[in-house]
Amino acid sequence: MQALKTLVIAMGLLIVVGIGFVGYGLMRAKNAPQTQQAPVSSAAEPFAARVPVPPGARLEQVTAAGDRIVLRFSSAEGEKLVLLDTQTGRPAGTISLVPDTH
Q1: Helix (H) or strand (E) holding 24
Q2: Residue 84 CB burial class (10 angstroms; 0-12, 13-18, ≥19)
């Protein structure tokens, strides 16, 4: 019976100490400096871009992906993706889609 009392008291103390740690953690998180993101200016400078189009290609799709604009062209030679930088309007890269050989 004495062992049971000791066990109950020890577990009660563990609960009280655990609640104290949770409270300490919450207070510390509340007082921690908040990280703030810099405001993103939606009124960026307008740009005029010249995009190289493959000969005989047709623009099939335009998609925004993160800080890129993706243009999908199709022609007799296959499909090509042109990536444009949204800040400058300049081509950031091209991807030629080729058939899988296996």
Answers
A1: helix 2-31
A2: buried
* DSSP letter, residue 50: -
The three-state secondary structure class of 26 is helix
- In contact, 82 and 70? CB cutoff 8 Å: yes
The predicted-structure confidence for 18-56, as pLDDT tens digits, reads as follows 999 999 988 887 776 766 665 555 555 677 777 878 788
**Sheet containing 91-97, strands listed edge to edge, beginning at the edge strand earlier in sequence:** 58-65, 68-75, 78-85, 91-97
Question: Which amino acid belongs to residue 38?
Answer: A
pTM of the prediction? 0.51
Identify the bridge partners of residue 93 per DSSP, sorted by sequence position: 83
Q: What is the H or E stretch that residue 68 is in?
A: strand 68-75
